């Protein structure tokens, strides 16, 4: 049973991740803010966004629950990798601080439990632990995370590969790397903290399935807010090129 207003507000809803990657034309806080406003108009229950400038800009413009992260560094742990990153994200006004919730060594040497505790004590914000496996999800909940996200499933060398969970995209039988719905079911079945389904939700049907499996909410990014990737899907289908 969750009680925090931001978690209650996204319960049963769609959270839209609004991110542009380094060097891309849309990598600009005002642009991302407009994307966030556009998805809010479409019924997003919450926003997930990256980078301090984007978070500040979006926080000032929108009242929706905001999940903030800061991708930094070129190591294995790059989603809000240290406590300092987490404190900076909290200072933007994000309601929930998303961070790497795996058991890999963190660049500042702190454990996940130490990091979560410090965020709670020093900011009062909630922590979303982005994990890649069932074991990591259970450990992150044990470490005190308020919400567990399946964000990193398929993005660590030891987690289930996305190719193992393909979903058909068209009547021609074309398949696409799918989300790890089994992980959502496993975690939702075992945890009392909310589980957020995130990562490669490219079809509305997949998002609906995650909810049936017990997700608290679903985060969709690429399929809504990344036109370069969406264009590539359609361009390949139209040209027949691989
Ligand atoms: C693995 C990683 O770095 N994931 C990031 C986490 O914030 C984002 O790049 C994703 O876009 C986000 O998780 C939403 O997922 P999708 O774009 O597949 O709907």
TrEMBL record:
Q: Identify which top EC class this enzyme belongs to.
A: isomerase
Q: Which superkingdom does the taxonomy of this entry point to?
A: Bacteria
Give the record's pathway: Amino-sugar metabolism; N-acetylneuraminate degradation; D-fructose 6-phosphate from N-acetylneuraminate: step 3/5
A Pfam family of the record is: NanE
UniProtKB keywords: Carbohydrate metabolism, Isomerase
The record's SUPFAM superfamilies line, in alphabetical order, gives:
Ribulose-phoshate binding barrel
- Reactions catalysed according to its record: an N-acyl-D-glucosamine 6-phosphate = an N-acyl-D-mannosamine 6-phosphate
Q: What is its EC number?
A: 5.1.3.9
Annotated region described as Disordered, given as residue ranges: 154-180
Role: Converts N-acetylmannosamine-6-phosphate (ManNAc-6-P) to N-acetylglucosamine-6-phosphate (GlcNAc-6-P).
Identify its protein family.
Answer: Belongs to the NanE family.
Name of the protein this chain belongs to: Putative N-acetylmannosamine-6-phosphate 2-epimerase
Instruction: Please tell me the species this chain comes from.
Output: Nonomuraea monospora
Gene from which this protein is expressed: nanE
């Amino acid at each position: 049973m969750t009680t925090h207003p931001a978690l209650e507000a996204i319960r049963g809803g769609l959270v839209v991740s609004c991110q542009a990657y380094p060097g891309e034309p849309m990598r600009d806080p005002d642009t991302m803010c407009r994307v966030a406003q556009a998805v809010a108009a479409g019924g997003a229950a919450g926003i997930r966004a990256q980078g301090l400038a984007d978070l500040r800009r979006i926080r000032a413009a929108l009242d929706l629950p905001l999940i903030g992260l800061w991708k930094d560094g070129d190591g294995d742990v790059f989603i809000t990798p240290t406590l300092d990153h987490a404190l900076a994200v909290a200072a933007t006004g994000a309601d929930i601080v998303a961070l790497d919730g795996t058991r890999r060594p963190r660049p500042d040497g702190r454990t996940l439990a130490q990091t979560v505790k410090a965020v709670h004590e020093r900011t009062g914000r909630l922590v979303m632990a982005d994990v890649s496996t069932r074991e990591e999800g259970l450990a992150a909940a044990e470490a005190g995370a308020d919400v567990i996200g399946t964000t990193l499933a398929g993005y660590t060398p030891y987690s289930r590969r996305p190719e193992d969970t393909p979903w058909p995209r068209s009547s021609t039988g074309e398949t696409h790397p799918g989300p790890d719905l089994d992980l959502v079911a496993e975690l939702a079945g075992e945890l009392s903290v909310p589980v957020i389904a995130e990562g490669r939700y490219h079809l509305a049907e997949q998002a609906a399935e995650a909810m049936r499996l017990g997700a608290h909410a679903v985060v969709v990014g690429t399929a809504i807010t990344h036109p370069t990737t969406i264009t590539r899907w359609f361009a390949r289908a139209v040209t027949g090129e691989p």
